Each structure stands twice: as C-alpha cells, then as structure tokens.
Amino acid sequence: MKIIAIGKNYVNDLSEMPKEEVVPIIFTKPDTSLLENDADLELPAFSNDVWYEVELAYRIGKTCKNVSEGEALSYIDAVALANDLTAKDVLKQSREPNKGPWALAKGFDGATPISEFLPLTQFPDITNIDFSMRVNGVETQKGNSGLMITSVEKLIAYVAGIMTLNPGDVVLTGTPSKGAGKVNSGDEMVGYLEGQKMFTTKVK
C-alpha cells in the first residue's frame, strides 16, 4: 500500500478560499511510516525539530484510475485520523537551496500515527467533518473538512489521473492552517474525530 499526502490544503475560514483553481502539492510516505494501535513514538535521532500535523485520512476501497470528481467518493470506503509528523529541520535543508523532495522529512519510521478506520457511511456529509488534536490535554489544532482548498474528491481525481490508487491506499488531506507544533519527549498527542477519541500517541 502507499500513502498519498497533500501540503498546504486548509484556510482559516471560507473568505480565504482561493478564487482560482489550485494545483495540489502532492508527496508520498512509505507504509513503514505508519504507527498503529496507539503505539509509542520514538523520535528520530537525525532531527531536533519534529512537528505534529493532525489530518483526515481516507482509505481507497477499490482500484481507482482516471476517475471524475463526481465518481471519486465511490472509491473511498473508510475515514481515519492521522498525524503527518514532519522533521522541520530536515525539510528546511531539503528545500534550500534546491527545493528537494520531502521524503526524508516525512517518511521516517513512525512518522504517520493513524487511528482505526471508520466506514464512510458514518459520515453523511464529508464536507462537514470536525477533527482536532490535543497535546498534553490542551487543544492545539482544530479543523473542519469544509475548509479544504482541494476537496477530497478533487484530490483523488487529480491523483488517480497520474497514478493508480489501489485498495488499501491511504490519502491524507492536509492539516489545519493553525496550531501545528513541535513534538517533545514525554508528550501525549490525542486525536479526535467528530468528538470521538481516535488515537493516543505517547512520545518516548
């Protein structure tokens, strides 16, 4: 399976929504970055500046290639909550001066804590899904799917026009524009989806 992710995909409110079509910033993460079943996180030794980014995650349920936006949702079978961890110092080094790839900063082991998946049928309106993150008991991020710049159906149609999405592939849809922050040893990160606790990640 593969993990497809998007960068810079949220606005603070609808008044900030771009008037023109935005080309999504797409990157991939290896399956070895997944951290499941509330496993503890061991921060990578090569970074001193790892940040958390809570995101909605959508699972592909059937082979998806060259589909329209109108068809895209029929290829999703479940929704989860994920944390797209980023080694900011490594990302900065890869961006400057050559605008290199993001893989090293976002693909390390454990860089994608993720919850169990819930059936898509539990979400009657995918344009209005609330999610949030608490770090050490304090809410640090809060988002709603209606504030995505590139909606999930547009994102899936765009990616499926470039590469085939297979059953089990996961699509991350970006983090709220505010509230991402540094992860420290001893932190406890808890993700919520529609008010339901979805994952707890303790940092070693």
Automatic annotation (TrEMBL):
Acetylation found in the keyword field: no
InterPro entries: Fumarylacetoacetase-like_C, Fumarylacetoacetase_C_sf
Zinc found in the keyword field: no
Keywords: Hydrolase, Metal-binding
Residue intervals of the Fumarylacetoacetase-like C-terminal domain: 2-202
Name of the featured protein: Fumarylacetoacetate hydrolase family protein
GO molecular function, one term: hydrolase activity
